Amino acid sequence: MSQSESVSVRREIVIAAPPEVVWEYLVNADLAAGWMGQRVELDPRPGGIYRVQVIPGNTARGEFVEVEPPHRLVYTFGWEPGENGTVALVQPGASTVEIRLEPREGSTLVRIHHRDLPTEASAESHAAGWDHYLERLIKAAAGGDPGRDSWLPDA
Asked: Does residue 24 fall inside a structural domain?
């Protein structure tokens, strides 16, 4: 792979809700915490913070780059050092997530492109994370309860 090529993850899902509703689940910290995080801090404006403690010891951090409600969201993404001092393969802000929302007959087509990942292994790991959390978003944004995150340690 050449230096100019980017390792990335792409996903498409359909959610039984209009883009305006899905948008809120992406930018409203309280709603986002219901499907993808324990502690969520979002300031959805260019330069605003994106910070989500997904599970204990795993906190994603970046900043919003482009915010075009309710159709397009771009933010940088990476992982803070672990609580045990481990350094993340994808540093905070090192990759970019672009989310596009397109209306589809009462539903929303969600297109995600997570690019600038450093290796195929990191892309595979992030793909598994997207698959897990997008299933939860489908339920939450459609008005359902995604339940307790199965990736959380038992209390």
From this structure: yes
